[in-house]
């Protein structure tokens, strides 16, 4: 029902920035929520940020507040994750995810393939 493709990952030095993109193929955007998750080396997958297509509300993990910003384009076909002040601990495989319903930290049904972000010191 929903196809997600991430892009924008890469290698960056500590303190640098990257912007991830997630292109969504979906028929109806009403009631859709999009989120970003990441899996750091040796850790479980964790919630990063999410945005609602219904009211544009957002939610962030404490670890990225003030550094990362989630947004969507005017056509609501792509969501972005602007990552600033990147640190080595941000190194992870970042996944785009989607669900129908409220902006929450879990319960996402659709997933992209992931894009690698590597931050060097």
What can you tell me about this protein's structure?
- There is one protein chain.
- The chain has strands at residues 3-7, 10-13, 18-25, 32-39, 46-52, 58-60, 68-72, 78-83, 92-100, 110-111, 115-120.
- By secondary structure, the protein is mainly beta.
- The protein is globular, with a radius of gyration of 13 Å.
- It starts with a strand and ends with a strand.
- Strands 2, 4, 5, 6, 9, 10 and 11 form a seven-stranded mixed sheet that branches.
Structure summarized in a few sentences:
With 121 residues, the chain is mostly beta strands.
Topology:
Elements: E1 3-7, E2 10-13, E3 18-25, E4 32-39, E5 46-52, E6 58-60, E7 68-72, E8 78-83, E9 92-100, E10 110-111, E11 115-120
Parallel strand pairs: 2-11
Antiparallel strand pairs: 1-3, 3-8, 4-5, 4-9, 5-6, 7-8, 9-10, 9-11
> Which percent bin holds the helix content?
under 10%
Distance between the termini: 40 Å
Approximately how much beta-strand content do the residues carry?
over 45%
Shape: globular
Low-pLDDT stretches are none
Mean pLDDT: 94
String of helices and strands: EEEEEEEEEEE
**How large is the count of helical segments?**
0
Topology, number of strands: 11
Radius of gyration: 13 Å
Query: What structural class do you assign from the helix and strand content?
Result: mainly beta
What's the main sheet like? 7 strands, mixed
Q: Quaternary state, please?
A: single chain
